Amino acid sequence: MKPFEVYQLYNIEITRGSGTYVFDTEGRRYLDMYGGHAVISVGHTHPHYTEALGKQLGRLGFYSNSVRNSLQEKLSLKLELISGYDEYSFFMCNSGAEANENAIKLASFHTGRRKIIAFEGAFHGRTSGALAATANESLSSPFNLAGRNCTFIKRWDAETLEKELSSGEYAAVIIEGIQGVAGIIMPPAEFMKELRELCNMTGTLLILDEIQSGCGRTGKFFAHSHAGIKADLVTVAKGLGNGFPIGGVLISPEIKAVKGMLGTTFGGNHLACTAAIAVLEIIGNEDLMQNACRTGSMILDGLIGIGGISNLRGQGLMIGFESEDPDLRSRLLFEKGIFTGAAGKGTIRLLPPLTLSTEDAEYFIASVKSLLD
Question: Rounded CA gap, 39 and 34, in Å?
Fold first, then answer.
């Protein structure tokens, strides 16, 4: 038996990581400017993180959600304090797609409505409900295309949004804090405020997908906080576990829990909670949101004016730009030892650990400049 080959792979095997660097089987060091799809938030093998997981594993790795787990309560409180989402509750699951599935289901339970709205370029996951809200039909099988209850509208089209919501048919609008897979596309703050008002006026719940843009990446814990709004449901994953699978939904106190309405086998297990608690402690203790602002601004400023770069955008350590060199990503990897991400032809995505140093940022800028200028 062999792995089911659905990924385009570089012929590199990473066997070790430390801070913002990873190492392959030959011992070559790479600067990680992608963080494994925004997953590595506090750096590879951070000592506080690895120590906490090791100690917990020595006590108990798993037991079911049929008994109390005080680690879930501890994690929920820490998440409330760092995010500013007072009095919300937290449902824990295993991944971003699962978090969005549960958020959509909760919105439908709460409103009694079937339909949702998503936006051009949206990516919310590959499981059935999340995939229905993902604006890429090539990812959907015939089974997934049947009976869709999602309407897609153009990015930041407030007029169409108001018209659709006025029908009273929609349980929720789901939107990414910053569109990640689409190439770091930022919704304007004024649109986000109008969206919040339209949802309020029509009894529609607002779901903020912060799976890639959350956990301090933009300089605030959630990207939508820059617009000064709050959502009814916020989904998190990726950076919350720093590589340990965890997802979850922050849930408004207006949405009441009913026994059995949601469930999970592995969600909120002892190791997952321990990983997330350690991540939140590191983010707070090491001022990583401030570091994301500082080093992100350095990168944005440093890339301005480099020949061959256009449409530079982003916030904190969530940055995208277009390159006239279609091979820039591969050249950065093989000539400079830097991992980056892509989003379609010619788009580079940067999602490094929030621990990125100014020296690493300077090396990245100099490397791009040397390859393009």
Answer: 9
Q: Is residue 64 part of a domain?
A: yes
Residue 129 lies in a domain: yes
pLDDT of residue 373: 82
With respect to residue 20, please indicate whether it lies within any of the assigned structural domains: no
322 Cβ contact partners less than 8 Å away, ≥ 6 residues apart: 309, 310, 311, 346, 347, 348
Q: 239: domain CATH number?
A: 3.40.640.10
Range of the domain at 203: 48-285
Q: Number of structural domains, the chain?
A: 1
Which amino acid does the sequence have at 96?
G
Residue 338 is assigned to a structural domain of this protein: no
Are the beta carbons of 171 and 207 closer than 8 angstroms? no
The predicted-structure confidence for 293-344, as pLDDT tens digits, reads as follows 999 999 999 999 899 999 999 999 999 999 999 999 999 999 999 999 999 8
As a whole number of Å, the end-to-end CA separation of the chain is 47
The predicted-structure confidence for 333-373, as pLDDT tens digits, reads as follows 999 999 999 998 889 999 999 999 999 999 999 999 999 98
SS (H, E, C) the chain: CCCCCCCCCCCCCEEEEEECEEEECCCCEEEECCHHHHCCCCCECCHHHHHHHHHHHHHCCCCCCCCCCHHHHHHHHHHHHHHCCCCCEEEEECCHHHHHHHHHHHHHHHHCCCEEEEECCCCCCCCHHHHHCCCCHHHCCHHHHCCCCEEEECCCCHHHHHHHHCCCCEEEEEEECCECCCCCECCCHHHHHHHHHHHHHHCCEEEEECCCCCCCCCCCCCHHHHHCCCCCEEEECHHHCCCCCCEEEEECCCCCCCCCCCCCCCCCCHHHHHHHHHHHHHHHHCCHHHHHHHHHHHHHHHHCCCCCEEEEEEECCEEEEEECCCCHHHHHHHHHCEECEECCCCEEEECCCCCCCHHHHHHHHHHHHHHHC
- Find the mean pLDDT for residues 114-120: 97
